[in-house]
Amino acid sequence: MAKKQKKAKSKVKAAAKKSARKVVKLASAKKANGNGLPKPSNKPWGQAGKALEGVKILDFTHVQSGPTCTQLLAYMGADVIKVERPGAGDITRGQLRDVPNADSLYFTMLNGSKRSITIDSKHPKGMEILNRLIKTCDVLVENFAPGALDRMGLTWDYVHKTNPRMIVASVKGFGPGPYEDCKVYENVAQCAGGAASTTGFREGPPLVTGAQIGDSGTGLHLALGIVSALYQRNRTGRGQKVLCAMQDGVLNLTRVKLRDQQRLAHGPLTEYSQYSEGVPFGKAVPRAGNDSGGGQPAWLLKCKGWESDPDAYIYFITQAPVWGAICDLIGEPTWKTDPDYATPKARLPRLKKIFARIEEWTVTKTKFEVMDICNAADIPVGPILSMKEIAEDQSLRKTGTVVEVDHPIRGKYLTVGNPIKLSDSPADVRRSPLLGEHTDEILKDVLGYKAAEIAEIKTSGAITAPEKKEKAA
Ligand code: CAO
Q1: What torsion do the CA atoms of 276, 281, 285, 291 make, to the nearest 10 degrees?
Q2: Tell me, what's the pLDDT at 24?
Q3: Ligand 1, closest atom to CA 182?
Q4: Looking at ligand 1, which residue's alpha carbon is closest to its atom 46?
Q5: Beta strands of 136-259 (E only): which ranges?
Q6: For residue 146, how far is its CA from the centre of ligand 1 (angstroms)?
Q7: Torsion over CA of 383, 387, 391 and 395, rounded to 10 degrees?
Q8: Torsion angle, CA of 279/283/284/286, rounded to 10 degrees?
Q9: Each residue's pLDDT tens digit, 401-417
Q10: Distance, CA of 78 to CA of 139 (rounded, Å)
């Protein structure tokens, strides 16, 4: 037994040495050519390996924020090993189920291109396996409630001592401060990050948005933190902690409203339709309905069919440089020279009237006709696309932004591929793993366990559901 452990230890050590050698290799390449880079590859584009090839992620994430991050890293070529609780797995496997007994779309659309291993982190043998993973992997990503990782025994000090190269990346609801111990879900972050108070209509209550800026938004921030830490590790040889608080992530995405909060001290926000309606501003940034949020006044306008189609709308931007083209299009050529309309400043108090007139024109056309006509004249507009239209959009399928994958239990489903396109690292979008689907291969190929050891692990209860533990006992 002791011999076996020694052997396993030396295997893990060898893997750690190998990754250390990589860093040394990079350092000597630096000496060789002065800029730290190898010679440019002459392999065809897309065949020189994936961007994050060789990076191993110990994925301790669940629900949405963390899984968004690790799915993106998997699309970029990292080997993402998702650790799940035996018998249960990520809670979203069973949430919002549409097909009985099949992993939900909630889970499958956030966990593609990953491998799944079941490990009970509260079982001594389970912790032994986790220790090997920590020694072997480059990044540990987690989004447990505050303190949960520490309660498992995986404190930063412990992980850093076990593998000084490991990057430990976390999503939490709040950063250090009065709310740091709180559990947080998407809409809590939208509310605390300033998005909800600035979304919706002035007369209505605060509104949360359908875009998951708290969860997926913070997951994207975390992914950037991780690749930056990996890059820095090439120089320093050591890992670091990466923390993204959901409140911070939402605020980052809502920064234009903090901009407006400061502008408010110097006078009314003239591009808000509230200004053109003569409604005074209060002390905080108000909700601005469908106002643009930028320097070019804009609004949502009805198109042909709006009476029966809830998505027959176009978003119309009255960009100043194309004001003349807009006037010609809507049949108001005199507005090009009329001092009440000719300049952006003159138009600001009249926006309501202007958009009403533009709508008289858009309502005679479908949103796609408005799109075609306006884009031909260089006028920026956006059709309100329903999810049905997006799901059926062939151009999104062609670019790999919407991808159909096949799942052994639920069959074919659509997922969102990699929205970030790398010309030399095309995304490899694969279906999500079944619970524990790769347990054996990870134990054997990644962690170097022998068949007899794997058999022992299986009966120990460290990787199986509690019912099976009872049977085995
Ligand atoms: N084996 C054994 N135990 C495991 C395990 C495993 N493989 N994986 C997880 N667990 C345990 C943890 O140890 C923890 O147990 P303790 O609380 O006893 O220490 C528990 O499962 C999970 O903890 P949790 O508190 O994270 O889960 P929750 O469902 O109660 O809370 C959430 C969920 C999302 C509110 C919370 O995780 C959180 O606030 N996360 C940070 C913010 C975040 O990412 N929110 C976005 C979620 S998506 O909307």
Answers
A1: -10
A2: 46
A3: 39
A4: 185
A5: 139-142, 167-172, 241-245
A6: 8
A7: 20
A8: -10
A9: 999 999 999 999 999 99
A10: 10
Q: Is the CB of 186 under 6 A from ligand 1?
A: yes
What lies within 8 Å, CB to CB, of 150 at 6+ separation is none
According to DSSP, the residues that pair with 450 across neighbouring strands are none
Residue 28 has pLDDT above 60, yes or no: no
Using a 6 Å cutoff on CB, does residue 79 contact ligand 1? Answer: no
Is 215 tagged catalytic? yes
Amino acid sitting at position 351: L
Between CA 354 and CA 327 the distance in angstroms is 10
Contact assessment for residue 368 and residue 290, using Cβ atoms and an 8 Å cutoff: no
Strands 381-383 and 313-317, how do they pair? Answer: antiparallel
Q: Concatenated DSSP letters for 422-447? A: -TTS-----PPPPTTTTHHHIIIIIT
What does the mean pLDDT of the chain come to? 92
Going by alpha carbons, the residue nearest to atom 11 of ligand 1 is 148
| Least confident window among 35-49, 119-133, 312-326 | 35-49
- Strand bridging mode 115-118 / 79-84: parallel
Active-site annotation holder among 79, 103, 120, 215: 215
Q: Is 273 in the pocket of ligand 1 (CB under 6 A)?
A: no
Share of the chain above pLDDT 70, in %: 91
Mean local confidence (pLDDT), 291-298: 85
Question: Angle CA(172)–CA(174)–CA(178) in degrees, nearest 5?
Answer: 135
Q: How far apart are the first and last CA of the chain?
A: 21
* pLDDT-derived band at 292, boundaries 50, 70, 90: confident
User: Which is nearest to 64 in space by CA: 226, 215, 250, 270?
Assistant: 215
Ligand 1 geometric centre to CA of 61 (Å): 9
31 pLDDT higher than 90: no
Write down the pLDDT at residue 468.
47
Q: State which ligand 1 atom lies nearest to the alpha carbon of 118.
A: 7
- Whether the per-residue pLDDT at 467 is higher than 50: the answer is yes
Separation of alpha carbons 341 and 328, rounded Å: 13
CA-based radius of gyration for the chain: 27
Q: Give the pLDDT of residue 439.
A: 97
Of all protein residues, the one whose alpha carbon is nearest to atom 30 of ligand 1 is 145
Q: Which among 385, 388, 431 is positioned nearest to 411, based on CA atoms?
A: 431
